Structures are given as structure tokens and as C-alpha cells.
Amino acid sequence: PEAARLAAARPGPALTWRLTHLAVADAPSEDLLEAVGAWERTAAWVAAEQARVLQELQRRVAASTWAQKGLREDVAGTLTLSGRAAGILLDRARELTAAPEVHDALRSGVLSVRKADVILRDTGFLSSSEARCVHDALIEQAPLLTAPQLGAAARRAVLELDPDAAEARHRQAREERCVVLEPAADCMATIRAYLPATDAVRA
After folding, report:
1. 116: burial class by Cβ within 10 Å (0-12, 13-18, 19+)?
2. pLDDT by residue (tens digit) across 33-79?
3. CA 157, 163, 169, 170: dihedral to nearest 10 degrees?
4. How far, in Å, are 21, 86, 129 from residue 29 at the CA level?
5. DSSP state, 143?
6. Which residue in 13, 63, 76, 141 has a CA-CA distance of 20 to 30 Å to 5?
7. Which of 74, 142, 85 is nearest to 110 (CA)?
8. How many helices (H) and strands (E) does the chain have?
9. Are 18 and 6 in contact (CB under 8 A)?
């Protein structure tokens, strides 16, 4: 059945061809659901390959701070993005350089883009050996967890790995607490607070 073939297919050119030639209007619902999943894996593969190209560009400008800034502007211009959005792509590529196991899982579709970003965000401060240990466990769990659940699992793993370091990071984060006022559409505004969770619950 087509659904089984789509579910088993690894992302790449062959799967992309199969998906683009799928007769959507005539396919049974089970095929379409597996096609949705296959497109999600393909999106992860595309993001991983884009990151691979960005990593090479980063390598070429690594010796110059000005060239690194220029690279962000070049990426923003090429993709018609803001500097911040281009920076997110470049940050992901750099973080994946330091976490090849996460990059491989993204390329194979085991991790979605969002799940890869969650893992990188919640383990980015670990040493390479610590991160590899946590990453391997999280990647194994990832197919069965939503992105928020995966983030919670990452935070638990980090806490169990080194409780003292986690407490030190909390103390440092407390020093960075703040309230930010951001303009919104229709003459509205958003107030965003960054504060300890215990204080937030009492607010």
C-alpha cells in the first residue's frame, strides 16, 4: 500500500518526487495522512541541507567578524528576511555543527525542525560530551513526544546531569529578569515578563 511505502521512506529526492506526483484528489485518507508526515520529514531534510550550506559559508568567514556580519546581511538579502530571521538560520547551522547527531537526525527526518530547535535550545550550554549523551537519549524519544514534551524531557535530563550547574544557571537567569513592552497591531501592545516561575505563578 502507498501509505506503508510513504511511512517507511527516508526523506530525499526520491521521496519528494513520489509526494509531488501523488494523486491527492484520488488517494485514500490513510495515504494522505502518511503524505503529511512524509512532507514533514522532507521539510526537516531541507532544513538540514540548508544548514549544511550555511555551515560552509560560516567556515569561509570564520576569521573575520566583519565578514560574519556581512554573511548575515547576505543571507537576509537572498531570502528577503530580517536580520533577526537570518540570524536564526545561521545560529541553527552553527549549533548543528557542534551537534552532528542532531543534524543527522534532522536530515533523516527523525527530528522535525521544531524538535531540533528545542533540543539545541535546551542543551546549548552543555559541554560537547554532556550534550552528546543527552542528545542521544532525546533523539531516541523524539518520535513519541511533542516538541513541548521533548523540551521538558531535555530540561529534566540537564537537571539530572548536573543539579549544581542548573542552580547556578537559575541564579544567573534571575539577574536577567525584565519586563518588556512591545507594540502590536491595531494600536495595541503586549507586555512580556521574564521572571522566576514561582513569582510568575503568584502574579
Report:
1. buried
2. 999 999 999 999 999 999 999 999 999 999 999 999 999 999 999 99
3. 100
4. 16, 37, 44
5. G
6. 141
7. 142
8. 11, 2
9. yes
